[in-house]
Amino acid sequence: MADSLVYVYAVTDATQELPAVTGVDDTSVRQVVSGGLAAVVSSVDPTRFSEEALRRSLEDLQWLESTARAHHGVVAAVAQSGPVAPVRLATVYLDDDNVRALLDDNGPAFAAALDRIRGRTEWGVKIFAAPTPGGAESPAVDDTRPGTSYLLRRRAERDRAARGLQDAVAAAEAAHGDLAAVAVASRRYAPQDPRLSGHREEMVLNAAYLVDEAGAAALHRLIEDRDEPTLRLELTGPWAPYSFATLEEQ
Fold first, then answer.
1. Number of structural domains, the chain?
2. Distant-in-sequence, close-in-space partners of 29: CB < 8 Å, separation ≥ 6
3. Is the Cβ–Cβ distance between 87 and 9 less than 8 Å?
4. What gap in Å lies between CA 223 and CA 227, rounded to an integer?
5. How buried is 152 (Cβ within 10 angstroms: 0-12 exposed, 13-18 middle, 19+ buried)?
6. What pLDDT, on a 0 to 100 scale, did the predictor assign at position 250?
7. Range of the domain at 41
8. Looking at the structure, do residues 110 and 125 belong to the same domain, yes or no?
9. Within this chain, do residues 136 and 191 fall inside the same structural domain, yes or no?
10. How far from chain centre, in Å, is Cα 73?
11. Which helix (H) or strand (E) holds 12?
């Protein structure tokens, strides 16, 4: 067995400065360079990062959380000084030569990904359906038929909620159109379940936007100025542009 394996975090320009940052398993982070590209890597213990060990570890939520935090921490730190194309979590190679082969084989795709995000950041926008007070009047109560009156009230409440959600979805689509217009690119994701989002309101839009400095300012203005009683907008970022630096976009 080799003395160490090579864990890959991301690909950057070869000239990009590497910050002082600790990687997975408290390892030192370094670069493997080929041509105009550099892979940001760590040398890791083969007993902990072999293919078999990783299969076991990826089922360990505590290990997965700590490794993901370290992985994303490296990417975020490197992104402070230039464009970064993140590599999938737990990507491990046998040695530096194999990493150089990765850079050589995918050089044009990596270069295109870096050019696409150069000078740009990613912002996330989540839109929730805001509860609307009032609404249609409830059916009149018939004291002689309490069961029927209850069912009519429940049906009216469901209909009112459905109409409110439809209005919120339409308003969110309009908001997304405005936000995407000031972005270089946008990407939509499936709305999160309330148990994941941490909000009781239903999420009606979950999107990411790639913007330059002017676009970021415009994005903020659109969020701050939007007056939509049916919506609640949440802006997060800036982030390293994970959503837009993938090779799959080529």
1. 2
2. 9, 18, 21, 22, 23, 40, 41, 42, 74
3. yes
4. 9
5. middle
6. 36
7. 5-117
8. no
9. yes
10. 14
11. strand 5-13
